[in-house]
Design brief:
With 262 residues, the protein is mostly helical. The protein contains 5 helices and 3 strands, in the order αααββαβα. α1 (3-81) packs antiparallel against α2. It starts with a helix and ends in a 10-residue tail after the last helix. Bound molecules: zinc ion.
């Protein structure tokens, strides 16, 4: 393979991995936001339960005061009863006492209801508190995994950026511009291998005389797929398996540079 083409292929191996790392990095903020949202949702449940309990305590105090004030009135009416002179006044006061006692009963009923509700709110607060603690613990673990993944991806990114700088150093500027244009058009993949006389990217037939030209050792011309315009490269079948293995290894991870042989 001619040197320029091999250099571009090395560059492409780096760029494919860079794209992968970039898309992984782009997902981390969303993961962290979602984690925060899960904790916030659990806090809302706890806060709602606590607010209900606060309102309940307030209501209970009010009903307790109601009971006390109605009891005061009953006492007053009873005091007055001993002083009245007429039956009519007596009956009127009796009526007031009955009314006040009904109010006491109502307030006591409401108080009892609130006391029962209060127990339920206590249970809800305890459950919401336990759920929040559990979610916080789960999210802490999740978060540290995400942060570790992000750290690894950032490290990989800076290594790949360095590898890219090395790879582009060997590529003439006009060829690099050309490559970058095709990369933009094809979402990061500018080169396509000719396989079974077809463009490995879009599957269109590559004419035999083009393949013949590409196989000439002294050729320095670049050939493009007539359909997708990607730069074509050809790996001789005899060494194809070895080269393909080194290429896929470069894409998969361990080595970022392949030997520069033409
Ligand atoms: Zn093509």
């Amino acid at each position: 393979m001619q040197k320029n083409l091999q250099n571009l292929l090395d560059l492409q191996h780096v760029d494919v991995r860079l794209n992968d790392v970039r898309s992984r990095l782009a997902k981390f903020p969303k993961k962290l936001t979602e984690s925060d949202a899960r904790i916030a949702a659990a806090k809302v449940i706890l806060d709602t339960s606590k607010a209900a309990q606060v309102a309940n305590v307030k209501d209970r105090k009010k009903y307790e005061l109601d009971v006390e004030s109605w009891k005061d009135r009953v006492r007053k009416y009873r005091d007055q009863t001993s002083q009245v002179k007429t039956n009519e006044a007596y009956r009127a006061l009796q009526h007031e006492v009955e009314m006040a006692e009904q109010e006491i009963a109502k307030a006591e009923d409401r108080l009892l209801e609130q006391m029962v509700a209060s127990e339920e709110y206590d249970r809800r607060i305890k459950a919401a508190d336990a759920a929040l603690k559990e979610i916080e613990q789960t999210e802490r673990v999740q978060r540290s995994t995400v942060e570790a993944d992000r750290g690894a991806a950032e490290k990989e990114m800076s290594e790949l950026n360095a590898a890219r700088a090395r790879a582009v150093a060997d590529v003439p500027e006009n060829l690099l511009d050309h490559y970058d244009r095709i990369v933009k058009k094809h979402h990061g993949v500018a080169l396509a291998e000719v396989r079974d006389e077809k463009c490995g990217a879009c599957g269109m037939i590559v004419r035999p005389h083009v393949i013949q030209e590409m196989r000439r050792a002294d050729s320095d011309q670049l050939f493009h797929c007539e359909t997708c315009t990607r730069i074509l490269y050809y790996i001789e079948p005899s060494i194809g398996s070895a080269s393909a293995a080194s290429a896929s290894q470069a894409v998969a991870g361990s080595s970022t540079s392949t030997p520069h042989e033409s």
